[in-house]
What we know:
Layout: H1 5-46, H2 53-72, H3 74-78, H4 82-99, H5 102-120, H6 124-139, H7 145-170, H8 174-182, H9 187-217, H10 229-240, H11 243-271
Helix pairs in contact: 1-5, 1-7, 1-10, 1-11, 5-7, 6-7, 7-9, 8-9, 9-11, 10-11
Amino acid sequence: MTFDWSSIWAAWPDLMAGSWMTLKITAMGLLGGSVIGGLFGIVVTYVHVPVNRRNAAWVVAFVAVLGLALHFAGGALAAVPGGVLAAVLLAAAALLLWRFPQWIGRSVSIFAQIFILLIRGTPIVVQVMFIYFALPLLVNLRIDGFTAAIFTLMINSGAYIAEIVRAGLQSVPKGLHEAGLAMGLPFHKIMAFIVGPVALRRMIPTMGNQCIISLKDSSLFIVIGVAELTRQGQEIIATNFRAVEIWGTVAVIYLMMTGCIALVLKVVEHKTRIA
Length: 275
């Protein structure tokens, strides 16, 4: 067998287009996942509501009652537009939280813990297949492959980033938080100027791992036809049958992208290191 370099040059524009699509999906998914993970990580760390049998029973009972209500009221709800129904449910939830503000932190904490449990316990391929194929049937809204890929990577990385944030915050000595309280600082200033910078330095290596994992996980979106790097490589091989050259090039491109991420994170880690 001879190695055909010309097949690589001919396929290079398509491979670059797939690489750009991979980077866009990864960047946008990680950006949204960082917001979700940061919020849920802080809530789970500082709002102590364990998911025990009692809380789990309340959640199961609520879901069961809601399911029965929707089942028996199915005929009536079928005539109600989805936007109106969503607005009514959101208004009812807002009214309850306004009437009982002490439920806000607990509700978010329980939701965050259940969210992390569900997302970490299911494969990302199942998640993207559900979002792309099943979710449109539930909400009667068509979702394109690019949006489904970003949303899937967002919630998937968000669950893992939440645990990274929780571990980073718990590694900070409690004395720093107590010192901020003694100075009369509000919670957001304690997080921004005292606890947050220390925790962030400790989260950099694990956040780097999550960035690399999310970049490689984007290749799984081939199952819904997103034109990312792996999909482009598969389509090119289907036309020229040069598997060794194309898959070798795809592997090198992935290695270059993950290597750049690792290098940037090394520099950031070195710059933020406390002497």
